[in-house]
């Protein structure tokens, strides 16, 4: 296996881009990443996307986007794994370069949510559940997260507002990211006063769906341009794991088993433990996911993940910074692009390009995205430390 | 739309027919052919009693396309008496407050409306409180 470097990064602002099409959105991110990488010629494009067929009536997406970017002729494939699509595309790009089969790979995550009403987006996203036994009964991803949170409260009885720290941290960090959908900090009192989306889930427990595109250029160290101007960030761990698709098929729905497996595998490959990292870009699509992810990572005992959200432990100055550029909650959740945004933001931290959100001397990052309630989990470990 | 798919599911939707594992006796719903308990083949049909209790629940106010007429509705994970969890709506609640552990039983109701002019109504299981 070859060393794999993230040589280029590019992103669009996350939000509602009424005036920008799916292909244009993708193109902006691809161009930005290629410029950042200093002229490497890509041989392959791996696109993470979850809903273009349903929301834009466009499938065969990777070929369209390679075509629109003037890259006709290259290998191009779309990767779909619901909310984990972006991470799954990164995994494919990593494997292609690590194997030596591809010298330079583009990894793109793109999602265009604003083409449809929120009701159609909820229905489309619910096709990532078990359609026959979950979605056809009226279950949505949001309602499913509410079921998890309700059961969590029932079994573990955390304090009132136990989950407030997750969105409070995310919004504080979003304030320092000019690409974030929300750039304003919120107070814990704001969380406690917020209206319910689906009890006990309130509006601050749910990350907003949004449009966005993010891209990475991957290559081997020996192919970097002589004048490469960035700190080289290496991918030293990469893993995908799956669980039952339907939440009700699990012996204990409050255990994110695939999240645990993918972290264990990625960390084992990297030769690290989760507690060694300087930042953890976790999948905070819902506050309860964040708590269950910390438990899955072995950073908290069963039913105790919410305790991390107290006393600023997850803030940029805390013991384990999460969602350092706003996470899904404040940066926004552009579906299949989310996993690529997360890796891009971890790269910013490891290059020293995170601006006001920079974690001093960050050298090791864990990045994880989830498809549904960790039905798929994709984890990567990134570092700026030189290869031994 | 999707008529064969809904037709294939009629035993599950109308009668809660799952499977029983011939090796370890585990009851399986929804049917999945490989026993989740022992990993052996499970293909013998098994009729569930329809009795269970609420494992978790919530209310959907902003319904996805096809469910607008039902909104707001209560959706739950129900722990069936035979073991498995199943996702379903609760119905006939009237003014009753739902609680984790509340005993419920299966009934057949309309699940959702047609989403276009060629669409079909879908019927299937929901759960109601056990009275008395
Ligand atoms: Zn068995």
Q: How does this model look, in words?
A:
The complex is a heterodimer of chains A (388) and B (132). Chain A has helices at 22-37, 52-55, 61-68, 85-98, 118-125, 141-156, 165-174, 188-193, 257-270, 287-296, 327-331, 338-351; strands at residues 4-11, 44-48, 75-79, 104-111, 196-198, 201-202, 212-219, 233-242, 279-281, 364-371, 376-383. In chain A, a hairpin with a 2-residue loop joins β5 and β6. Chain A is globular and about 55 Å long. With 388 residues, chain A is of the alpha/beta class. Chain B has 132 residues and is mainly beta. Chain B folds into two domains: 1-48, no CATH class; 50-132, OB fold (Dihydrolipoamide Acetyltransferase, E2P) (Beta Barrel), CATH 2.40.50. Chain B contains two helices and eight strands; from the N terminus they run ααββββββββ. The model of chain B has no long low-confidence stretch (mean pLDDT 91). The interface between A and B is large, with 35 and 36 residues. Bound molecules: zinc ion (ZN). The site of zinc ion has 9 residues of chain B, from loops.
């Amino acid at each position: 296996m070859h060393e794999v470097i993230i040589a280029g990064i590019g992103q669009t602002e996350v939000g509602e881009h009424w005036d920008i099409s799916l292909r244009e959105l993708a193109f902006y991110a691809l161009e930005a990443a290629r410029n950042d990488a200093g002229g490497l010629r890509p041989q392959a494009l791996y696109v993470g996307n979850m809903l273009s067929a349903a929301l834009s009536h466009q499938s065969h997406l990777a070929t369209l986007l390679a075509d629109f970017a003037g890259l006709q002729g290259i290998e191009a494939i779309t990767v779909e794994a619901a909310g984990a699509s972006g991470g799954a595309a990164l995994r494919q790009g990593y494997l292609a370069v690590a194997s030596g089969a591809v010298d330079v790979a583009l990894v793109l995550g793109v999602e265009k949510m604003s083409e449809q009403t929120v009701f159609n987006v909820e229905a489309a996203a619910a096709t990532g559940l078990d359609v026959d036994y979950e979605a056809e009964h009226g279950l949505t991803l949001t309602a499913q997260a509410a079921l998890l949170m309700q059961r969590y409260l029932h079994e573990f009885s955390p304090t009132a507002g136990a989950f407030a720290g997750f969105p409070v941290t995310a919004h504080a960090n979003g304030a320092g990211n000019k690409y974030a959908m929300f750039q304003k900090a919120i107070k814990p009192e704001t969380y406690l006063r917020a209206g319910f989306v689906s009890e006990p889930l309130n509006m601050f427990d749910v990350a907003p769906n949004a449009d966005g595109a993010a891209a990475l250029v991957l290559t081997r160290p020996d192919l970097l341009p002589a004048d490469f101007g960035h700190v080289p960030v290496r991918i030293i761990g990469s893993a995908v794991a799956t669980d039952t698709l339907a939440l009700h098929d699990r012996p204990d729905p409050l255990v994110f088993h695939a999240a645990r497996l993918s972290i264990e595998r990625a960390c084992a490959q990297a030769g690290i433990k989760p507690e060694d990292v300087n930042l953890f870009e976790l999948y905070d699509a819902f506050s309860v996911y964040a708590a269950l992810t910390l438990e899955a990572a072995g950073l908290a005992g069963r039913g105790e993940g919410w305790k991390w959200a107290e006393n600023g432990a997850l803030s940029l100055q805390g013991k384990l910074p999460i969602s350092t550029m706003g996470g899904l909650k404040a940066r926004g959740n552009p579906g299949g692009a989310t996993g690529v945004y997360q890796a891009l933001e971890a790269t910013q931290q490891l290059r020293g390009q995170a601006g006001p959100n920079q974690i001093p001397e960050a050298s090791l990052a864990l990045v994880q995205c989830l498809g549904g309630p960790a039905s798929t989990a994709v984890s990567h470990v990134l570092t700026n430390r030189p290869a031994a | 739309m999707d008529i064969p798919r809904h037709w294939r599911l009629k035993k599950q939707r109308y009668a809660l027919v799952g499977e029983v594992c011939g090796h370890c006796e585990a009851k399986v719903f929804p049917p999945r052919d490989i026993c989740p308990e022992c990993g052996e083949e499970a293909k013998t049909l098994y009729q569930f009693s329809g009795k269970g209790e609420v494992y978790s629940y919530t209310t959907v106010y902003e319904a996805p396309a096809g469910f607008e007429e039902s909104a707001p509705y209560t959706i739950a994970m129900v722990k069936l008496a035979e073991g498995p969890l199943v996702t379903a709506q609760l119905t006939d609640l009237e003014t009753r407050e739902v609680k984790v552990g509340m005993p419920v039983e299966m009934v057949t109701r309309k699940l959702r409306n047609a989403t276009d002019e060629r669409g079909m109504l879908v019927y299937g299981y929901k759960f109601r409180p056990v009275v008395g």
